[in-house]
Known about the structure:
The structure holds two protein chains of two kinds. Chain A has helices spanning 2-8, 12-27, 45-56, 63-77, 83-104, 107-131, 143-165. Helix content of chain A is 71%, strand content 0%. In chain A, α3 (45-56) packs across α7. Residues 1-6 of chain A have low confidence and may be disordered. By secondary structure, chain A is mostly helical. Chain A has one domain (2-30, 38-165). Chain B is an alpha+beta fold. Chain B has a domain at 166-242: Rod shape-determining protein MreC, domain 2 (Thrombin, subunit H), CATH 2.40.10.350. Chain B has helices spanning 2-17, 22-53, 56-94, 258-263, 265-273, and strands at 103-112, 120-123, 136-138, 143-150, 155-159, 166-171, 177-182, 189-194, 205-208, 220-228, 236-242, 251-256.
Amino acid sequence: MEAVADTRTNGLWVIAVTFVAAMVLAIIPLPDFVPATLGYLRPEWIVLVLIYWVIALPQRIGIAIAWCVGLLSDVLLGSLLGQHAVAFIVVAYIATSLYQRLRMFSVWQQSMIVFATVGLNQLINFWIESIAGLTEWNIWYLLASVMSALLWPWVFLLLRYLRRRFDVN
Amino acid sequence: MLGFCILSFALIMVDHLSGYLDDIRAGLTIVVTPVLVAADIPGREAREIREIFSSRNEMRNYIEILEQERTLLKAKTEKMAALTAENNRLRDLLGSAAKLQDNVLVAELIGVDPDPEKHEIIIDKGSGDGVFVGQPLLDAQGLMGQVISLSYFTSRVLLISDHSHSVPVQVSRSNLRLIAQGTGVTNQLELMHVQDTADIRPGDLLVSSGLGNRFPVGYPVGVVNKVEHDPGRPFALVTAVPSALLDRSRHVLLVFTEEKLARTPEARRNGSGG
């Protein structure tokens, strides 16, 4: 029984490392010579990583982990505590309910779903901030979901490689 | 799922409407501090590499310029000390309290909010260094912003150019009191409710007025660059360029004003070092 439990939780640190890397990418400052408005093009790295792990290991990465990661993102980004958490659990919920279908999809079809999911994530964040009176509607925010969808195939391939290389499950 | 949703919305409400969650946020911020530090590494390394590759000659020139500047500033400081003493003597004659010099603590910028709509930065000094919420932040040129949240090692600063930020200012030439509001653009502030007949013109220096007891008196905030009188509007449209290099300064100064100092002895120790 011990041995079985041991193999079942193999390489979970890889998941933690990818989440931390995504968080670093999410806040890394743009170089000085780049105009600040290019910040709208920043993909939602954390959501991409979250979607991947939910599809790959739905029995391990679910709504609870998504909530914790969301709470840490809130602290990292200075948003209201719980704001990203609620957006991430919706993302995780969609991914867990679709994971069997998503695995059958080609990577570009997955990109479409990623586009919709990240867009929803952006909208939820936006709704909460606008209800709190912290921001105004800005269509540029949706650029992040376009970029996320375009980057999904590479993120997917990289994370799949890491998962197989370190035999994460 | 539903439980987590309800919990999240409860958290959002409590966080938005009260300060009860500040300690939790501070604790969690310590957990993510390594991420903040890691995100700052590429920029830091790039600067260091640029320094390594700058030629000996460039460095010498740079040092020379710094030396000259230092001599100049030292001369000014000496004069300043005499003026401060004189000022305090005069204030004494008028029966008002003596003004102490504000103490400062040097901090370094380690992060910028990735959202282009939010003008927030993260600095490497926190509650452990005596920083407090609402503390004003300066750079060498002028007022930058104020601290809005704290953790032990870092704090988050709202810049004066953010949409939601306003500074009480004063035109240094005419002593006209106004409010400068951020516009969401780094190099622009908007002055609210300026009468069409008000004595203000392009080139006027705006300094903090100290009203509201948040910012200390007399630090430069910006320079007026446009005054437009539109008969169709109730007020004149006046904009200013912030004096501080809001998007370029890396070394910033946290100000400890005297009444705050009296309350935190720890801050006094740190402040005098800076």
